[in-house]
Amino acid sequence: MEKKQFKAESQRLMDLMINSIYTHKEIFLREIISNASDAIDKLAYRALTDEKVGLNREDFKIVVVPDKEARTLTVADNGIGMTQEEMENNLGTIAKSGSLQFKKETENADDAELDIIGQFGVGFYSAFMVADKVTVISKAYGGEAAWKWESEGVDGYTIEPCQKDTVGTDVIMSIKANTEEENYDEYLAPYSLSNLIKKYSDYIRYPIRMEMEHSRQKPKPEDAGEDYKPEYEQVKEWETIN
Question: What would the pLDDT profile of 3-50 be if each residue is shown by its tens digit?
């Protein structure tokens, strides 16, 4: 499969993300969830005039799925999705033309907190601060084919047809291994992710759902004696985090 190259500015900003000394890498989750919310907005608006959408406002949601074994974090939405052309336009080109100039002007600045992402909407690419590979699987509303975009960074990306039954987009991030300086495992831990969602994405108007594990007391047996001690079990339940 032919690997396509990012445009020059995109390559340099991608390199910035991958090798970032950005002190708040955690904001990547805010950006990916925000993109998912935008995609749902577009389909929700379409649903107002198009009965074929078949979804009501309460049907829309964003699902966050950490997988410790596969070491992936997936953010999935049932929004409007992307065609192959939209993948090229949205994921093959980065931010605005002013981003690189802004970076040049601030390279020697003392303030390590300069929010390039916040100022220029580099959002999607912030995933590369915590992931060494990003896969996007999407099916556009009204389209028959689904498409998979995949990149390991500055060396380019691939786009190919794939299978996806439902409309929407899955962003699958292969989380980096821990280093002496960074604990990337926190982006695979439900409670850490829950805290980040509440910190940065509580305002999102659609439910952000994630499976959470809790300790729950088992029902007391009918024949339990006076010396009975409560027993507990771990149960997983889907919860709305925001």
Answer: 887 766 666 767 776 666 556 889 899 989 999 999 999 998 888 887
pLDDT at 108 over 50: yes
* pLDDT number for residue 119: 43
199 SS3 class: helix
> d(Cα 75, Cα 37) in Å, to the nearest integer?
11
Residue 41 backbone phi and psi in degrees, to 5: -50, -45
Residue 121's Cα: distance from chain center in Å? 15
Q: Is the dihedral of CA 23, 28, 29, 35 positive or negative?
A: positive
CB contact set of 153 (below 8 Å; sequence gap of 6+)? 14, 15, 18, 128, 132
Structure tokens at 25: 């890498």
Per the structure block, which two tokens stand in for 173?
A: 């991030």
What string of DSSP letters covers 64-125?
EEEETTTTEEEEEE-S----HHHHHHHHSS-S-THHHHHHHHHTT-S-TT--HHHHHT-GGG
Whole-structure pTM value: 0.82
DSSP 8-state code for residue 209: E
Distance CA 148, CA 242 (A): 29
Which H/E stretch holds residue 190? Answer: helix 190-200
Name the residue among 168, 126, 138, 130 with its Cα closest to residue 37.
168
Tens digits of residue pLDDT in 56-78:
778 899 999 999 999 999 999 99
